[in-house]
Amino acid sequence: MSAATKKLWGVLAQYENPAQVYTAAERVREAGYQKWDACTPFPVHGLDKAMGVPPSKLPWAVLVVGITGSTFMLFFQSWAMGNAYPFIVGGKPLFSMPVFVPIWYEVTVLSSCVTAFLANWVMNGLPQPNHPAFASKAFERVTDDKFFIMIEAEDPRFDLEKTKTLLKEAGASLVEELED
Amino acid sequence: MGTPTATVTLPDDPKVRGDVVLPEVLEGREQLVRGNHDFHSITETVCKVNEAPILQTPNGLKFGIALAAAGAAMFGGYIGYLFWEGPGIWGNNNPVGWAWDIVNFVFWVGIGHAGTLISAILYLFRQKWRTSINRFAEAMTIFAVIAAGSCVALHTGRIWMDYYLFPVPNQMGLWPNFRSPLEWDVFAVNTYFLVSTLFWFTGLVPDFATLRDRTTVKWRRFFYGFLSLGWRGSMRHWVTYEKAYQILAAFSAPLVLSVHTIVSFDFAVSQLPGWHTTIFPPYFVAGAIFSGFAMVLTLAIPAREWLGLKDMITIRHIENMNKIILLTGTLVGYAYGMEFFMAAYSGNQYEGFTFLNRMGGPYWWSYWIMMGCNVITPQLFWFKKIRTNVTITFILSIFVNIGMWFERFVITVTSLHRDALPSSWDYFVPVTEVFFFVGTFGLFFFLFLLFVRFFPVIAMSEVKSVMPQANPHWEGYGHHAPGPSGSGEGEKSHGAADAPAPVGGVVPSPAVASTGGHS
Question: Which pTM does this prediction carry?
């Protein structure tokens, strides 16, 4: 954070309620910005659509790993009981499908849930210990009751004054510049 | 944001309802949070407990933590004694080789189920009232499963051989028996614990971020900053986050049914009279939810009194939980009756003897405690006056907890103490297992009270998202005239922090008009 390396990262605008941030997000999207984001204390219903955020791809990761884990466990059980050390219990055949169901099922759930958990953070790029917005005092209330939109300077349409005006006209109660 | 109902719902109400004063519970079902809360006051109310300096912890909580820590320490000491002496210190003997260790295990695992039901099944059913109780119900689940896990890990006797349960081959190249219900149980309980923990932590991250952003104390900023993973409430993150949350809920929902089903297989797959019944899985699941909700109430009622959470955990929550207790309690009562019927109808004399012996044998007292607490108590909740009375609910929830512990005692001990060989019949007397049981309570409450002290007990971001003003199209924002200005009715109760109204001239911009349709 030495003065020499300071570089404009983007603009941060504060809104007071979900309706304001919703309207503002629509305007920013209409204006054609690409590298921008809205930060809210809770998922505002419909804001993702207003922003044009595509649906998450997370379910696909869960599906792939879930099916893999599930298949693996079924084969693994029958291999361990029937091949690695053939082991007959209660006169059942070596490949006794019904008794493999509970563990098969549990491992399906486990592998899917662990994937959903990890993929959530990986796809979101978290943990991310720092972010330019964390330098802003106002941004501390993003997890409380304030709503923010930030537009990155890297966006091709970014123009400091025009972008600021856009955010202000959309109802921002506060507009700040963020430094990298 | 002012009072939504006063300004919003009433004008829309038909005239017929005009002069009837509706109780707040019925007035507008969306109003899940009582009192004039806005987003900020929710944060303040919930964070207050976590943010008190360590030395200013409320005295009741300090005392509770100290007492529970003593219990947990006793538990640790007991484990040491168990290591030293071996399981001979228990009153277990032939024929009762399974006793309080298994009773406690089933008791604690059962308690966990309510937490998962609240967090997963009610979430999938869009029961929005769950948002204010799910966090600590999930915490209860995790700590109950920890207590259960310690019971079952210690009951093996030679604890250092517990790795025989893991899916690794032993020194003879033999894998654990995947065909055994006891092995299923290992997978079920461990999966349950891990999935519940991941689900709980995922829900906690945005709230950890709230605590991180509010604190001025260095260690707290590090602690909550570490746990919050740098969460910044990005909408692009929320999209994936909500999807992950949904999937975790969808996978946890069947776990509510499967875990206790598999626990019941431990009994039902054996051939002992009184255990070998097909009714066990549904009966165990109903009992688990029954006991779990009782424990949620036992914890929630003091919590809402002492932590000042009455606006969020309302009488409606308590009433809803009582209704679930009534339903599952009735199912459990039905299962008791059905077990008897099947014993008589099967004509099997051993089965018949077992059930008559439960009622009138040496353990008659445990049977009647169970019947009294589990069959009669929930039926009182047919009365609205009782359902909505906090004190009576609290007392009855304790009765249910006691009754459900005795249910497991009755199932485990009475079936074992009269086995097929009369010469080995005996009367089981616990020796030091009482300390074991009390110790699990110490461990459970120690973890739970630490959670109450340092973690947000109410899922703030979820509660905020179900408040009427969380909807960007809420009428209070006057969205029919897009943009927050104009309209005159814009209730801005944020006080000084409130926004200067944006310039009116920008309102009908083409951008907004093009997305119209929300007027």
Answer: 0.84
